[in-house]
Give the backbone structure.
Amino acid sequence: MVIPVFVDSRPAPIWFYYFDREIPFIPLMIIPYYFYYFIIIIPPLIWKEELKIRHITSVLNMITVICYFTFIFWPIDVSHVLSQAHFSKPSFISFFHKLITYEYLHQNAFPSMHVAVATFLCLSYYYDFTKFRLIAILIAISIFFATFFIKQHYFIDSIAGLFLGSWGFYYYVIKIKACD
């Protein structure tokens, strides 16, 4: 929340929001968007191997640094998509949507850190916990879709987050296999 005080947002290139005009605002997608906060607290609870937790933490740190540095140097204006988020009346769903959007803040990050972290963690869950594979993939996919259906990100932000999270997972697997 401090960065917007020092850095003004920059207009997004038209190719950023070309598809977003056609993507509907689906308020109920706020529910899977909040799955993110659940999945980020799981790693220390389910991974018993300290080395895996260390590798997961290092990859999460790399993803975070990449996302924040990109945001600092290129804070894009999300007014084009955020202006499409309309609620007919206040509700439970609109309350949770307002918790992630602020009247003064029309900036967002490319790539989507929500998608990058969710993709990385869910692929890691998929890889390490076979009985949770379907759930992990469904959560990752639902968070991916939620980011642009609730107009929190441009579609391209979510695609870039998907690639960054996948790269993080690939790096994680290399580190794990190197330790075997």
Residues 122 and 137 are 6 Å apart (CA to CA). Residues 53-83+107-180 form one domain.
